[in-house]
Amino acid sequence: MALKPTEDGAATICRFMxxxxxxxxxxxxxxxxxxxxxxxxxxxxxxxxxxxxxRDGTISxxxxxxxMVTLKLCP
Length: 75
Description:
Elements: E1 2-5, E2 12-17, E3 24-29, E4 36-40, E5 54-55, E6 58-63, E7 68-74
Antiparallel strand pairs: 1-2, 2-7, 3-6, 4-7, 5-6
């Protein structure tokens, strides 16, 4: 997993990969509070304008085999 600020510094990008050949349901928890989390393309453009569901600082999502995931974490 890698974290970095967005180009404008307004949010944080989180990247990770499912390195297995199996579908996975994952949960990510963050210590820092975020108001919204969006799936992005590899060039950090939001691809789904509906934010992922955040519950108590944790998001759950489905990841396909060998999928690279990019998330935009908005404060």
